[in-house]
Specification:
Arc Repressor Mutant, subunit A, elongated, three-stranded antiparallel beta sheet, four-stranded antiparallel beta sheet, 268 residues
């Protein structure tokens, strides 16, 4: 069985490898031939001559199935643009100075890649909206033993890359899947029963919706003795699984965040 790390590659240094740098590399590669060296990229106007920076970005482009290593090492190392229509279409539009059209072609390229397929099927899993916090925990579950910043920055990198190709949209902490994939989202009929949790604050009643279930669904299996609580609101769209008492600490922290925001709004 494939691990998540086999499907999703996160950059080890997001300051060097980010959606902006990847786009600039594509723009520069469009100015070279189908086979190029690092020096040729620099000569074509690449914004950096740092070898580590170049190597890391080219490595990620290789993961995205855009280029491959041709031959040689060091300064003699050559790279080859893959002979794929999707790759050629992106580079053609960049050569023609049609940046928006190039991003539309990048959308076609990335939606066929395992990265997007994994996020669409395993992370969004039939839902249209998630949060960066959800993605952080998804990455942590699949790629364990890393620090919080690795998952937080890595998740932000992934969504901003998809946003560059108009496959997802990031608004604060909220992630929304592209409208073109709404047909993949199937509503679950006769879903888990909902109950309202009422919080009284300054004589106002705020209600949060919490879903609980101990049944098995074909689309989403929820183990027995597991409670699923979903928070939806401005800057917050999170679904939490409660399996043990310690998990309630996350719920309490989320409620504290909501309480603080509500108090701030009333003060203003």
């Amino acid at each position: 069985m494939e691990n998540l790390s086999d499907k999703i590659k996160l950059p080890s240094n997001w300051m060097l490898v980010n959606p902006e740098s990847i786009w600039r590399y594509l723009q520069t590669i469009a100015k070279t031939g189908s086979i190029f060296t690092k020096d040729q990229l620099i000569s074509a106007g690449l914004y950096t001559s740092n070898d580590d920076n170049i190597s890391r970005n080219l490595s990620y482009l290789k993961y995205l199935d855009i280029i491959d290593e041709e031959r040689g090492k060091g300064k003699d190392q050559r790279f080859r643009v893959l002979d794929r229509k999707e790759v050629k279409d992106v580079l053609y539009e960049l050569k023609a100075n049609r940046e928006q059209q190039a991003k539309s072609k990048l959308k076609v390229l990335l939606e066929q890649h395992g990265l997007f397929e994994t996020l669409r099927k395993d992370f969004f899993a039939g839902e249209k909206q998630k949060t960066l916090t959800d993605l952080e925990h998804f990455l942590r579950d699949g790629i364990p033993n890393k620090g919080p910043q690795y998952y937080q920055k890595g998740g932000e990198f992934l969504i901003k890359l998809l946003q560059l190709a108009e496959l997802a949209h990031l608004d604060g902490n909220d992630i929304t899947l592209s409208e073109s994939y709404s047909n993949f989202i199937t509503p679950v009929e006769d879903g888990p029963a909902e109950k309202k949790i009422e919080l009284r604050e300054t004589d106002k009643v705020r209600s949060l919706t919490a879903s609980t279930s101990t049944s098995f669904e074909d689309a989403q299996i929820i183990p027995q003795n597991t409670y699923v609580i979903q928070f939806t609101g401005p800057g917050l769209n999170s679904k939490l699984e409660i399996q043990e008492a310690d998990d309630l600490l996350i719920v309490e922290a989320t409620l504290a965040k909501i309480r603080k925001k509500l108090s701030s709004n009333e003060t203003n």
